[in-house]
Amino acid sequence: MSIFKMINVCFEDNGQKIINNISHYIEQSTVTAFLGKPGSGKSTALKLLAGLITPTSGSITFEDKDIHSMTHKQNEAFRKRASFMFQDSALWANQDIYHNLELPLLLHFPDMSAAERKDRIKKITEIVEFHKPLIIRPASLSIGEQKKISFARALICEPEILFLDEPTESIDEKTEDLFISILKDFISQNKTVIYVSHDNYLINSFLCDKIYFEDGEIKEKILLDDINQIDDYYEGDL
């Protein structure tokens, strides 16, 4: 089942064409990597797909609903089911770590008690192995620690879909192994991951569809279904 459909999508910024007429479908319970050189358009495509920016033309749908024409209620439901981890972490600088993690719960689970929120926050910080006091603010953290909190925030509402923009950039090997382990567990639950990365270690850690961008266009697609069909073909000849 195709849950996301991008059809003839273009995006311009200040008169500059960033994304040029791309089309791609993403199936439920799959892993998709958007790959390419810096400036190729892959991160912009990810943000378009996640509904964070609006295409200049073309359409992007989630379960056949246009993301940019959703009602407020539909959009909130989508945001609850799909979360985004930003390349620069994008933590709220004027809030402590606890409130950075609590805000998505307040928004998407208004009936959750304070004790339940506290328990959820405790569990997610343990999962990402963040051990510092939660009363400190993001400026007191290293870039790698900020990444941990950003990843925790993306996971805290237990989404079905994860959008990840360079999730392993600026982290050490131990933290990268931890992130990959967490993602493998997430994927094993038949959930959907779409990510941008230039990190071959991450890319090679999962079976995934690989979408290669160049100059704002999709230049190549290496899809698992195509690979499986080739494997089936040769197995049939043996």
TrEMBL record:
A Gene Ontology cellular-component term: plasma membrane
Keywords: ATP-binding, Nucleotide-binding
Pfam family, one: ABC_tran
Gene Ontology MF terms: ATP binding; ATP hydrolysis activity; transmembrane transporter activity
Keyword Ion transport part of the UniProt annotation: no
SMART domains in UniProt: AAA
Keyword ATP-binding: yes
Domain ABC transporter residue range list: 4-238
Annotated protein name in UniProt: Phospholipid/cholesterol/gamma-HCH transport system ATP-binding protein
Biological source species: Treponema bryantii
